[in-house]
Amino acid sequence: MSKYKIEFEKDKCIGATSCVDRCPDNWEIQSDGKAAFKTEEITEEQLALNMEAAQACPVQAIHIVNTETKEKLI
Length: 74
Description:
24% of the residues lie in helices and 27% in strands. The chain has helices at 18-22, 44-56, and strands at residues 3-8, 27-29, 35-37, 41-43, 62-66. The strands form 2 sheets. The protein has a 3-stranded antiparallel β-sheet, covered by helices on one side. A hairpin with a 5-residue loop joins strand 2 and strand 3.
């Protein structure tokens, strides 16, 4: 089973909540108004919703990398 890693550029985050709307199991808004992931390493089962969260981010602050191949998926 492939594992994936989330790379998040918090400084780019504008707190739009798109990631939380798409994937509330792994994304939350913190007290500073910016998003944060709950789990950096995700499984194949968690990939689809986290990809939706990344694609929905208006400032493209969320990236997902395959930890086995080092391929950046988004």
